[in-house]
Amino acid sequence: MTSNLIVRDATHAINGDSSREGDRALHLKSRIAAVADLEREFLEECVQVLVASDGGDETDADILEALFVLGLGRPEVLAEMGLDQVSIGRRLAARMEREELPEASLAVLEFLLEHDPEHRGVQRDHAALMRRLGMVQSLVDRHLAAAGQLMSNGRNAEAIEVLREVLLLDRTRKDVARTIRDLRFADIEKHDERKNRVRKLLLVAAGSVLLVLLGLRERRLFDEYRALAGDDAGTVESVGARLNGVERFVDRHPVWLGSFGALEERGRLRIELDRLIREADRERLLRDQSLQHALEEAAWAMERGRDRARSGDFVSAIAELQRALELGGDDWSESEQIERNIRVLQQALDERR
Predict the structure, then answer these.
(1) Phi, psi of 55, rounded to the nearest 5 degrees
(2) pTM of the predicted structure, to 2 decimals
């Protein structure tokens, strides 16, 4: 039952004083800290009540705020319900702005950015709200700080995109335009340097290949490698045989023209063998579980058969016992006794007729 009183109690327990006045960021921070100390069972009940009262776009801001606080204070409780605190937070921010509480909306979005600084959707919402609030300079400063962090991490392409946002906000920033130009030149130089390095490596490799191909040893090793047992069957046995052959070959011949291919195949075969073993174990577990389930059903059918026999319903009793035999299988320890019981019941039934 989710009456208004229950919903009101849940939101008050999570949100505390529902007044929208005062420092919203400080209030949210205090409520997130308070929720972290509440009992899990109580919070789960609150989530169930709040989710049941979620009416989509028209959901009351107190409900969204409570879910948002829960998501940041105890994210595991929200996750168990399949809820995402980021999407709830974005909905709360939009709702608060519609209720003409832009500062509260901004506080929510800034909490989300602390939680997930690289979430594109939150970044867009936050930037758009700051523009609407006339906080262009603050937004520019935030973008510049983010671009600086990206550049220090070597993520120049992403930094350029952020700096472009700065130019859209303030076209007088010639320093930003110069930075974008410098970053582009740096990327071009880095790309050219990488191409030269790759070209040199390819030339060295080509020379090595030509030299090795001239040697009889490499030809013999190549033929020997090709002759190793295959794994076409795709079974644990066939893949294992191929892997054993490749590993012995690599141990004997660590350096040869095809060593990289052999090492790559060895890695692939190890992964494939591990996958096949896990798959076989999973299938065996499923068979065991299926067998166990069948035996349990057989035991229940046997008990139902005995109950029907005691009540004198021999026809139903025989049917249940026969079902127990089918479920239990030939190796079931109860099979022989059940077959005797069926014969006795059938004889009694024939006599009764």
Answers:
(1) -110, 30
(2) 0.43
